[in-house]
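Bumping my old thread because nobody answered last time. Still need a sequence for this structure:
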């Protein structure tokens, strides 16, 4: 019924409900990708001949807006640990030669049980090839060692002078921001600079003190060029993610 209605109204097909639920709240599936597309346009981050690397692409929420902005010489590469999502993406965009999808063979609660660790995985493109690295709702599932490695891989993949857009839950460790983070993410490392929601599944939702996350960015040889607050400075309930523009 949903597919018939969307086709009748001229809207593109969406992934099946069970795959969309895997990515987060159903109500935010299209609105979140539209908001991210506005960020990309605001800073002119996608050119017609860009190679865009979508890290943790999930079921491809960002594929339609990115392909709309790419010309015939542009290319999209997405990867994710969730095999069913990648298989759906390959089938959905099989006729578009500009789009490639990769299953990240990583030992993960969200992907394969066997494979490389998150802190060893290499992004599926060569050094300095990406005109944009997009990591939407990825660092919200990475603890510190993995986040540090993914930031180093982001720097390796980026062309000099180009940028990455990442989202994360960031909080101010002091005052009301710290109190809100402790209620929303009750478990923490010894420094309380990294917090998570579930004791048994910490990767389900991870938050960073902003100073801690910026330090990880800088240690990877990158720097924060812009920050759009979302969860920052911290609230009792994380209703949005922070968006950061980072580059060499």
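Sorry it took so long. Here it is:
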């Amino acid at each position: 019924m949903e597919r018939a209605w969307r086709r009748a109204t001229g809207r593109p097909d969406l992934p099946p409900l069970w795959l969309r639920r895997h990515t987060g709240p159903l109500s935010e599936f299209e609105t979140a990708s539209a908001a991210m597309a506005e960020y990309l346009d605001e800073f002119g981050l996608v050119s017609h001949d860009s190679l865009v690397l979508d890290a943790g692409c999930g079921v491809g929420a960002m594929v339609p807006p990115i392909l709309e902005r790419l010309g015939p010489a542009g290319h999209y590469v997405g990867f994710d640990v969730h095999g069913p999502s990648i298989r759906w993406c390959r089938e959905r965009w099989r006729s578009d030669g500009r789009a490639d999808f990769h299953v990240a063979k990583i030992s993960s609660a969200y992907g394969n049980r066997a494979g490389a660790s998150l802190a060893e995985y290499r992004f599926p493109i060569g050094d300095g090839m990406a005109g944009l690295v997009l990591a939407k709702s990825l660092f919200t599932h990475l603890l510190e060692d993995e986040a540090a490695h993914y930031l180093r891989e982001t720097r390796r993949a980026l062309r000099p002078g180009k940028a990455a857009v990442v989202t994360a839950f960031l909080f101010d460790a002091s005052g009301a921001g710290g109190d809100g983070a402790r209620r929303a993410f009750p478990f923490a490392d010894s420094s309380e600079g990294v917090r998570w929601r579930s004791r048994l599944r910490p990767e389900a939702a991870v938050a960073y003190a902003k100073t801690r996350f910026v330090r990880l960015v800088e240690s990877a040889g990158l720097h924060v060029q812009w920050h759009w607050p979302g969860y920052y400075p911290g609230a009792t309930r994380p209703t949005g993610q922070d968006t950061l523009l980072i580059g060499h």
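The beta strands are 51-55, 75-80, 99-103, 130-135, 158-171, 187-188, 194-196, 206-209, 223-228, 242-247. Let me know if any region looks off to you.
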